Amino acid sequence: MRIEKDFLIIGSGVAGLTFALKVADFGSVAIITKDELEESATKYAQGGIASVMTDDDSCDLHATDTLEAGRGICKEDVVRIICREGPTRVRELINLGAQFTRTAEKDYHLSREGGHSKHRILHANDLTGWEIERTLIEAVKSKKNIEIFPYHMVIDLISRARLDTSVSLCGSEDELVGMYVLDANKNQVCTFVGKSVILASGGAGKVYLYTSNPDTATGDGIAIAYRAGAKIANMEFFQFHPTCLYHPKAKSFLISETLRGEGGILRLKDGETFMEKYHTLGCLAPRDVVARAIDFEMKKSGDDCVYLDATHIEGYRCRERFPNIYQACLNFGFDMTKEPVPVVPAAHYMCGGLVVDVNGQTNIRRFFSSGEVCYSGLHGANRLASNSLLEGLVLSHRAAAKAIECVKDSFPSELARSIPEWDSGSAVDSDESVVVSHNWDEIRRLMWNYVGIVRSNKRLHRAQRRIRLLLDEIKEYYWNFTITKDTLELRNIAITAELIIKGALERKESRGLHFNLDYPDVDDENWARDTVFQGKPQPLITKTREKTISND
Ligand code: SIN
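The joint structure predicted for all components is written out below.
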């Protein structure tokens, strides 16, 4: 099956849906998303969206806080643009119908999170992401020329360089014309052709054993972009959220940082506080500091967790402000108004990603990106809490303006017509799916143990050796057996893991989220810069799937 549209959007969180709304009046749109439409990391965002909303705050202050958290490698122009344009984009969202929590005086209730010098986190109690997702979905569904393809997973992007290997193209000389997509319900591969593509597929928390991310966060965007020859930067900066509920059945349920913003205190098992030893901001220190402090205290004491104490916050305030968290904790047997809840850090946000400029343009023509999957330079070495929803809104708005221009350019129709139909060749259905589940577990465990909050050269080299073996095995499996969503996710998560390890090995210093015991200090002279890896566009081989293919 072949589907032709002006705009192809991969992902249905804040970045993808915002882009869809902005381009919908300028051409036909497809939203391709591998689960149901609403299933994205956006939906699970609790804390909120950072935006300057009051006169005692300013975009300059917001930018200063963001630059401070980013530890010297944010792109300052990008930071300033996003902080400045953010409030306008947030008001657009409000005008679309997003309901954020207000005070008794009808002003917006603004929370505070780690690293912010002001109360500037707009929220819908503790279900902010869901409110944003709900608002955007309602608007998207009202647009006739947006077609939604749920349960569709991108296999690979199709570019000029991949179709015609007789010429050697790289980066800006190359251009995207489409993609192969697995319709997971029908088990069939479709060819999508588009005049512009935006990748907004979210993050990769599932690369780690413990994560606050939904199951969909398997690094697909990073892997497909890398295979198409895109530039990927700063993958070593993976943010660990300090406070996820510690319970065998809780799947690292997030306890929002805004709980600490409202006065929640971190304690050890014996009730002692500890954050004052690590940072003057105590429990509201930047996330990297809090996560490392907890990791250190847990290793020192041998305890499985630390505790987050909200018992001194009045019961009704706690229940009203955090109804979702309160209920979830109660379901696991903890009444947070009466007892401290056990918490541990878990992988939360990918601060590196697909390199884009301030208009979401990647190094390949007709190819844009926005949201967690991209690296615009906003987050640098550590993301300031609640800046990511804002980035998605601003970058998608700016990328849409460029993509609208791009679809007016002449499109290489001849080239697009030459895209072959997908052919599974001699691949057969797998009779050993255990390979997928085993490798999946092994990757997540090795990343947690060797490439986690505290790293060392020895652990990183160990991880690199293992991931190379796993990649070989996964490659063989991929070519021999019929494609499934699980196989695609496994291939993507393995490539993403390798890029995180490569970034961590390359950066010979400790900065922000990357802490290596062998280089405990910041090295501004050599490392106040990004680590960048560029994929090599690989020939597009849909058929034969021969074992001799070595460059996948
Ligand atoms: C939180 O609510 O703590 C998460 C917010 C964020 O990661 O930006």
